[in-house]
Amino acid sequence: MELSGADILCRSLADEGVKYLFGYPGGAVLHIYDAIYRQDKVEHILVRHEQAATHAADGYARSTGKPGVVLVTSGPGATNAVTGIATAYMDSIPMVVITGQVPTNMIGNDAFQEVDSVGITRPCVKHNFLVKDVKDLAETIKKAFHIALTGRPGPVLIDLPKDVTADKCEYIYPENIDIRSYHPVTKGHPRQIKHAVEMMLEAKRPVLYTGGGVVLDDASQYLVELAQKLNFPVTNTLMGLGAYPATDRQFLGMLGMHGTYEANMSMHHTDVLIAIGARFDDRVTGNIEKFCPDARIIHVDVDPASISKNVTVDVPIVGTVGSVLKDMLALLAEAEQPAEQKEALAEWWKQIDEWRAMDCLKFTQGDEIIKPQYVVQKLWEITQGDAFVTSDVGQHQMFAAQYYKFDKPRRWINSGGLGTMGFGLPAAMGVQLAHPDETVACVTGEGSIQMNIQELSTCLQYSLPIKVISLNNRYLGMVRQWQEFFYQSRYSMSYMDALPDFSALAESYGHVGMRIEKPGDVEGALIEAMKLKDRLVFMDFVTDQTENVYPMIPAGAGLNEMILV
Amino acid sequence: MRHIISILLENEAGALSRVAGLFSARGYNIESLTVAPTEDPSLSRMTLVTRGSDQIIEQITKQLNKLIEVVKLIDLVEGEHVERELMLIKVVAATAEDRNEVKRLVDIFRGNIVDVTTTTYTIELTGTGDKLEGFMAALADVKILETVRSGVSGILRGEKSLHI
Ligand SMILES: Cc1cc2nc3c(=O)[nH]c(=O)nc-3n(C[C@H](O)[C@H](O)[C@H](O)COP(=O)(O)OP(=O)(O)OC[C@H]3O[C@@H](n4cnc5c(N)ncnc54)[C@H](O)[C@@H]3O)c2cc1C
Ligand SMILES: Cc1ncc(C[n+]2csc(CCOP(=O)(O)OP(=O)(O)O)c2C)c(N)n1
Ligand SMILES: [Mg+2]
């Protein structure tokens, strides 16, 4: 039987196993919305802004490993989605975005709600397609999912002109697809892996520096096995948190600009750095000239372009984390860890424990003003370290990363690469939909939450019992901090005047609102909120306005040059 | 250093703009770029001349390889290769003296005069960039009306070839 393009799209998504489609309707996608109405396999989630659709799909993807799927209309629908697409691109998140487009015969005529979606998104997608013939539609969808999920994951966009969604053809969804120009490497080169293992066994002060790639590849178990077999210390990037259990003795905490003293000092003094699924971001390396001065570097990454991009490495290994770590473990199973190395490691751990004794994350919670760190610490305790935590961008994001100790991967959901304020709440919606029975907390700031606060309405519609933890410091705190440190406290435009009463606002959206002002009330309020299992609770914590994120590595400094308090 | 990157890519709308976009977005420079379909109509062959340190060229080739439409590529300067560029150049040839001088230079440089009017010659010349520039320099006082260059095309010498 012949189906319309719109029906083919719905059938293809269903055949691809898509459960949720995050979107917003408009003229160019009306045929598609009609097809959605006539089927029940894929559930459409109606957001309140297209940016939120992309973040929700992204949160769904980060927390499950499955691709997030988005549908928006042409023109403003597509442009509103761009921020979310770029956010997913920077963090290598698999996503398929379908944008409506004006009919093919009108493309290029400045038609109503026409924008060159393929052109606009080209630099921030892994790949994109314009489908001009309904006969190509099913195959293009198959290709899009294949590209989004394999190799280094990323968002793929399909631009779909309105006439193509009306045109009909026979529906066949391809079982498999081979794209002759696209065959990402999975298995690492055996000689390089052997070389790396030899180097690892010679190390006296090794560090495993691991990132988002471990999470994306669902390869935590191999990382844990490797680290524990060799007794090597592990540090995670912001994107890698949870890939190695944070409460384990061998975990040094996050590294980089706001990383721990012990992580950054270990990086600075290491002799063999083993980078796994991490991309040597400038927030991690600090000044490249001063980065890991004594280290030979091994780098495992599925994307050859990540290797030796910012830092030249000694042993490049192109392959997926899981596959390469398994190969390494197989080699190590035959090798004996040299006694010499065991001794050296004992020394190394002694040194690391001295750095650790600095207790760089310590803070004092007085009786008067709530410390943001305290709220996160309590959140961690009360949720027993087992919640899904999304965050927005700013100081609160760093506090969440530092004080919530993630023991499992895919639980920490944040925008690292693009640093998109407004990410947290919609991302939490995607996470909560994927995990209806789990606790999902969104740690946010009064600045960030206002960038997508309209989604409180979506949360009501779909009964998403998210716990919004607003660390309200009445400042664009991260901006204020930089102005304090580097612009002699000239607080230009970083003060948030005229804030709404968030608790009342949440109530008017039909949720539960709380305002917490006293340190003594923090714990009780959190416990109470967690008991409201089926309600969204907006917890507005009035926090210390002057608090800064420490440690901090200022621009141009090396990892050993942290500001501690 | 100067590099000639030869790329086999899918002959699809948009493939060229992806390559061009990559260069502008990442701030790489393009000295010249040519592209046309091959004997297999589903494939295009692009030759791209660029300059950069070894590290930049490594990133360029890696980033190009990441483009889904890029099937294969090589850096021709890593091996023995032939490189050619076509130039069409129109000059004023109104006097007998100029007409003779231009004709003589065209013969020396093994070009062809492909269009003649009472006042102009249009010359076709192929060769390396140096040769084309040498010709223009040799024209000396002859007035050039316009030059059109194809950009460099290149191919490996011997039995080696870039194919799928
Ligand atoms: C306010 C703010 C402050 C920040 N401060 C810090 C900080 O102090 N410390 C910090 O670490 N970050 C910080 N960041 C985040 C930073 O900007 C980067 O996003 C982050 O460091 C990148 O993490 P990553 O190296 O793990 O790379 P990701 O972006 O997670 O990239 C993953 C890498 O793994 C590779 N990969 C993907 N899949 C696979 C696979 N299957 N197999 C193998 N490899 C794979 C990819 O090719 C890529 O190279 C901050 C961000 C913000 C917004
Ligand atoms: C969309 C967007 N605009 C601007 C910025 C720059 N920026 C980074 S952090 C920050 C302040 C965030 O304020 P708030 O959400 O209140 O968090 P706080 O730092 O106070 O915890 C700003 C403006 C950004 N990251 N994203
Ligand atoms: Mg704030």
Question: Which terms summarize this structure?
Answer:
heterodimer, A: 565 residues, alpha/beta, six-stranded parallel beta sheet, 20 strands, 16% strand, B: 164 residues, alpha+beta, four-stranded antiparallel beta sheet, 4 helices, elongated, binds flavin-adenine dinucleotide, binds thiamine diphosphate, binds magnesium ion
Describe the SSE topology.
The complex is a heterodimer of chains A (565) and B (164).
Chain A: E1 2-4, H1 5-15, E2 20-23, H2 30-37, E3 43-46, H3 50-64, E4 68-72, H4 76-90, E5 95-101, H5 117-121, E6 127-130, H6 137-149, E7 155-161, H7 162-166, E8 168-170, H8 190-202, E9 206-210, H9 212-216, H10 220-230, E10 234-236, E11 251-254, H11 261-269, E12 272-276, H12 282-285, E13 296-301, E14 315-318, H13 321-334, H14 339-356, H15 372-382, E15 388-391, H16 395-403, E16 412-413, H17 424-434, E17 440-445, H18 446-449, H19 456-461, E18 467-472, H20 477-486, H21 502-508, E19 512-516, H22 519-531, E20 537-542
Parallel strand pairs in A: 2-3, 2-4, 4-5, 5-7, 6-7, 9-10, 9-12, 10-11, 12-13, 13-14, 15-16, 15-17, 17-18, 18-20, 19-20
Antiparallel strand pairs in A: 1-8
Helix pairs in contact in A: 1-2, 1-6, 3-4, 3-17, 8-13, 10-13, 11-14, 15-16, 15-22
Chain B: E1 2-10, H1 15-25, E2 32-37, E3 43-51, H2 54-66, E4 70-75, E5 81-92, H3 96-108, E6 112-116, E7 120-127, H4 129-138, E8 144-156
Thiamine diphosphate (TPP) is lined by residues 392-396, 419-422, 445-448, 471, 473, 475-479 of chain A.
